[in-house]
Automatic annotation (TrEMBL):
GO terms for molecular function: phosphatase activity. This is Synaptojanin (N-terminal domain), putative. Residues 179-584 form the SAC domain. PROSITE patterns: SAC (PS50275).
Amino acid sequence: MYVEKSPRKRCAVAVKDGTSILFVVLARPLPPPPPKEPELLMFFEKPSSPVAKQPEPATGNEVEWQKWSAGSYCVPLVVDERGEIQRYDKLCHREFPNLRDAYRQCGPFESFVEFAALFGCLRLDRMYFLVATKVEEAAVLPFGGAILRVGGTEWISFGIPGSEPLYLTSGDRNRLKEFETYSHEGGYYYSDDCDLRRPFPFVSSKDGNGPQFHSDWSRQLRKPFVTAGVESCCSVLLRGFAAEKEVLLKDGSILHVLLCGRQNNLNPGPRYFGRGLNAVNAVGNDHVYEYVMWRQGGGNGPIQFAKHTILRGTVPVHWSTRISKTISEPAMMFSQNKEEVLRGCDSYFSFVFTQLVAIMRYDSGEQLTGRGPRLRCVNMLRQSHHSSEEALTKHFTEAVTKSQAALQQAFPGSQLDLVHVDWLNMLKEQGIDRTTTTFWTTLLATFSTDELVTAGTIGVDGGVTLNSCQTSFVRVNCADSLDRTNIGCFYTCFQSTLNMLAYLRLEPDSFVDQNRLPPLEEQEGERPLETTLAMLQLSGSPRRDSVATWQEACNPSLYPAAIGRALSELYVYNGDTIARLYTNSAAMHSNILRGICGLKAAASNMVIATQRRYENAFEDKSKFRNIELLLGRNIDIHFPSMSQAFLKRPVPVENWGCALIAKGIPVGVPCSEIEQAVRKAWDSLVVPRLREDGIPVTSSDALTFIISAEDNEGEYHDEFICAVKQLTFEQDTSGEEDTNAEQNSEHLAVIEFDKDFCRALDAPFLLQENAILKFQTTGVALEPYTYPVLSENGNSRGIVRKAAKSLRSGVKNFVRGLYK
């Protein structure tokens, strides 16, 4: 089976006769499979005995592999007066075969620009569409298709017809300008050929309940496209790392080595705003990785694959960071109340084990045995006395102890344990070779490496048959789930390699590259005597499923050097990618991996640490704001002067008299309950007034109106407030006006009545004058719909603040120059 690739240009932004038009490309629906008709029997034939039922593939066989096989088509869209997406019907056709035909048939245009992908849109003062301006292939998929890495994005703005320009404070205008020019790149990827939110091999599970990685970073941006029935025109944006290396085998075939990491978006903040647990019991810098090897059989035969799943994230307890005036390492601050530090840790581990069970169900095709998953947390923090990391390790140990009993009850047969590898101190005292041996000994204690691997075959029909299922998992951490964590993940994947190759029936000598791996420390002259003797003694040793020392790993008869080099290179790039997402710097401690694969040495750890100190102090607020806006969260906090009524529902100025604002609605009240309250208030409070005034009575059943409200506004407010409280300064270094996270906390709804109905009866005025909406013990008053508009002279404040910002930029650029 070969999969038809998706079009490489998925949208175009055009302007024709002053109207902004968005052309989007969608896959044509696949025809339904033909029904299976029973075989007709002659009258003298007897039905044969039933054939033994063949075992079904372990997971689904599904149409994602064939998504584009029926072709594609192009649809024009516009933004209407309510800020909603609609199909545009004023061109020569409503649909076109492709973007080129749309351009040719509907031209001339004032402008027509094509983009590789559309991720969705966000309504602020205008409609902003997020498009990919640059992409490159990160990895190929089995049977065709690709994972694409995002090299640049742009927010394309469309005006909302009938709306006036919003009034914004100077601070909000500056933040809006920054938002418009912000590019999400270097750690984002997507695929239009499969659903990367699912585990490899990216097919649907039988019951549709696969693991919830919470890795969809553009889900909120796609919502406006649902009402137009074109949500599938948007690509699903993931954040993390995805890349592959192709390794040549002696038989001329290729082994694909894929590393795919998905970052959880429940605690999305950068370094000092995303450490430990937040208000929803999620940890910062939380990723699930799949290390995959796959190869295709002869011709277009089935795909053999093996994979290892590994977790990483910060420590699941509550703590904050205090930055001093000096360049010294920021201090970790813990509450004196231990229960407050550990609050939510058991909920976090329960969530992790729920996902591990879901992964096992997905991998095994729902055929789970009675045993639950085993999770080993490998803690790589310092354990020296009087260090903040020692205190963090102590709280981590208490969190695991607290969670173990609850997990045993909720997940029978499961196991959670915590082991410690003081990487930095061991490296200083014992050297890299002994530290590596200690890490592997600690990692594999009571573990069998075959428990760390899932392996199977993808048939030409897309069905998956499993040979083994991973039941033991590893979670690696340091303070920030960054540099030491990256090395720990590499070492873990390094050990799982031999079992993965065994399932693929590949030997260490199957590879073209048979050059030895280098020693972990750059050494001039001859190798140390013990290293040379170890290699000589191991030459021709029988096959193993793990290696105990780096000297053993350097023996090509025990470990394939080609895989070691490919894996180390992937983890070099992974480390830099995650570090830039989290700290806006390269990874530290990466020269160990760079030496293995032969890459150029990185800058010193001191230089990178200094750069991080200033980047995090000056840039984290801005980065956090733009991440939250990408996720569609807390717009009222980030733009406090932006009209909440407009954000809920932009009503054309000429129709303001047909709309009302209900302020102070309790959290969690759905639109259906607001509608009931409006109709009840009309019947109980307005109708009697109509009778008194001799006006013909109209019951609430005749009212025609639309309610716009958000059901989950408060959820992310708490998360944001928790995040900003994680960071304190001895002296404020921001140089700009802080956003008050507590303001604009009222929940409101916009109620817009039919314009023709309002001509006959001024329902908004009658409700405003006579009615109060009741929600249990809360009464909500109604106000006329309005929002502040921008005056002609604008706002000229902020000159002093610009000077402070210029000084800050000078220091920031100086520190960045240290790294160049």
